[in-house]
Specification:
Layout lengths: L1 H18 L5 E2 L10 E6 L5 E2 L2 E3 L1 E9 L4 E4 L3 E3 L4 E4 L13 E4 L3 E3 L4 E4 L24 E2 L3 E4 L3 E9 L3 E4 L13 H4 L4 E9 L3 E4 L2 E2 L1 E9 L3 E4 L2 E2 L6 E3 L2 E2 L3 E4 L7 E3 L7 E3 L3 E2 L3 E3 L19
Parallel strand pairs: 1-3, 2-5, 3-5, 4-6, 5-7, 5-8, 6-9, 7-10, 8-11, 9-12, 10-13, 11-14, 12-14, 13-15, 14-16, 15-17, 16-19, 17-20, 18-21, 19-22, 19-23, 20-24, 23-27, 24-28
Antiparallel strand pairs: 25-26
Length: 301
């Protein structure tokens, strides 16, 4: 379920950082040239570090944004099977200052890759927050154009802004809740979520087969489409407290919810309805049941 997965991921990522599993090896110094393409590469035990200003960036293997400001004046591309962790608030290399990520172009997540981007106290604690039980730190990444994922393993973003569209197509590791790929390091099921952010255009998520998925507290400039997504967790897909200017369209998904679980089981649930400027269609028309015996509705999703 959403709360369980969120908290588990924070704990295990932060534990890896504190324990030295993700000890960083810088590959990109601050003040680097802003033309050409920079490669940030490493392994889970010695990830590369992206910092400074660049024209375009390709991630290969494992890469972190934890050494100050990283600015990409072009596209940021995660190559197949790679992982980018950009959910650090502090400059963990110098011990002074903050970390951030700004991409003026697109963020492109290729097959089998994993993106972890953004953090805040309420939804996903920053990986280097010293107090994981009562976090206070935030990091707000920005993407000028689109965030596009094609067959990714997982896309986990919080407290972020995208100027264009968010599009995720396929991937997810299959309809199960088994740790796979980089998620094995964190002992977490594979999942994708978009929480607490602003998207100038559409959110379109289709054909994802995974454990859990959420679209939560998003401000969307146009339409949200959820199509043919199959999730193993019965609590998915949670579409909660979003402000959508256009339409909300849900068709062919395993299940959709506009309420969140408030206990250890699927029910009871707490309503978290969406604001939709135009039409609700398909599975996202009537509000979800709040108890095991409720029927959908009568209110809007």
């Amino acid at each position: 379920m959403r709360t369980y997965l969120r908290n588990l991921s924070c704990l295990v990522f932060s534990g890896a950082v504190i324990g030295g599993v993700l000890a960083a090896t810088p590959v990109t110094p601050a003040g680097a040239a802003v033309t050409g393409t920079t490669t940030c590469s490493g392994t889970p035990s010695a990830p590369g570090v992206l910092t400074g200003t660049h024209g375009a960036v390709v991630v290969k293997g494992a890469c972190e944004v934890n050494a100050g400001a990283a600015v990409v004046n072009g596209d940021l591309t995660l190559s197949p099977g790679s992982a980018l962790l950009a959910a650090f608030a502090l400059n963990d290399q110098t011990g002074s200052g903050t970390s951030s990520l700004a991409v003026t172009g697109n963020v492109l997540v290729r097959a089998g890759a994993t993106l972890l981007m953004g953090c805040n106290p309420a939804n996903f604690a920053c990986l280097d927050d010293p107090n994981q039980s009562n976090p206070t730190l935030s990091m707000h990444p920005t993407v000028g154009l689109d965030l596009r994922s094609n067959q990714p393993l997982g896309v986990i973003v919080h407290n972020f802004s995208v100027g264009g569209d968010v599009i995720q197509t396929g991937g997810g590791g299959g309809v199960n809740c088994k740790p796979q790929g980089v998620f094995k390091l964190f002992q977490s099921p594979v999942y994708s979520t978009y929480e607490v952010g602003t998207v100038g255009g559409d959110i379109r998520i289709s054909s994802v087969h995974s454990c859990w998925m959420g679209v939560v507290e998003m401000h969307v400039g146009n339409t949200v489409v959820m199509y043919q997504n199959k999730l193993a967790d019965p609590d998915a897909i949670e579409i909660l407290s979003n402000n959508i200017t256009g339409n909300l369209i849900c068709r062919g998904n395993s299940r959709t919810w506009d309420n969140g679980d408030i206990g250890p089981n699927l029910f009871p649930r707490q309503p978290e309805p969406n604001t939709v400027g135009r039409n609700r269609k398909g599975q996202c028309v009537l509000s979800s049941p709040n108890t095991k015996t409720d029927k959908p509705g009568p209110g809007p999703f």
